[in-house]
Amino acid sequence: MPPKDADARRAIPPVICYPTETLPQPDMALYRAARTGAQKVAEVTVPPRDAACFRVSAGQFFRISSVEGPQVGDLNLWNADDLSERFYSGKTRALHGTHLTTGDRMWSSHPNLRPMATITDDTLGWYGIDEYGGSVHDVIGTRCDPYTHNLLTGGQYHHCCHSNLTRALAQETDMDTDQAEAQVHDVLNVFMCTGFTRDTGQYFMKASPVRPGDYLEFFAEIDLLGALSACPGGDCSSEHSSDTARCYPLLVEVFQPAPAHLDGWHSPARNGYDRSHGIVDQKTYSKP
To answer: How many Cα neighbours within 13 Å face the side chain of 261?
Structure first.
């Protein structure tokens, strides 16, 4: 039975865990000025139910677009020169919320914890939060994967986003499959519309509002290696991890601004924590 003060306990107001007023703020005016007149220097088409890698230099922009039909994508980012520094979805979620849009940043893993990319334009920013609690571009879903698929169905399916990203990274870097799989991490679900049910708290998906011509655009804060999977769920209106959903390609384009338009900008430094973890004498804690 609930305690007598159950209602009073539930009525306690929430406290934001990480107030962001002191976060370094992106210079959106500078980014907008730099984007004006930027020239396309590369593009990659991601096939349906597959993944592809792309590279973006610090100071460039990259855009992920819907080109033929409603399609969601799973995005991984790494430091192009050090794959141990990769996108940290959990901390990004803690700082910006469950879904990202213009002005939010994709943060990197410990011990670096710095901006990897800043979202500079989002044609689905109008969507907001719907009556079910759904919104777009989430950092709550992990990525569809063959292990969960096997657990739930007993099947062997090789075009889950996890496997797609693994194959793409292995091909791009000449790693073997095991090495590449170890680098694949939780994603930004580009264009995916998701939330949590109010009654059971379960993660849900619904038909994405994305249409051909919609895009999500980023400014690369550091040199990036990216991998994008065109999810086998298509617009995720019914299921994922299968060959039954109608799927479409995604387009990644890279744009180079004029150098003068980025005067005063520099890549963010790695996190300033000294990494001593409160240990005064390292010798005291070393193993014999």
So the answer is: 18
Taking only the tens place, the pLDDT of each residue in 137-184 is 999 999 999 999 999 999 999 999 999 999 999 999 999 999 999 999
- Non-local (6+) Cβ contacts of 260 within 8 A are none
The CA–CA distances, whole Å, from 160 to 167, 173, 253 equal: 11, 20, 24
CA distances from 159 to 20, 114, 235, 262 (A): 38, 31, 15, 40
In a domain, 186, yes or no: yes
Host domain of residue 132: 39-220+231-259
Number of domains in the chain: 1
Does the pTM surpass 0.85? The reply is yes
C-alpha dihedral sign at 18, 16, 96, 164: positive
User: Considering Cα of 271, then 273, then 277, then 280, what sign does the dihedral take?
Assistant: positive
- Give the tens place of pLDDT for each residue, 91-103: 999 999 999 999 9
Distance (Å, whole) CA 52 – CA 62: 14
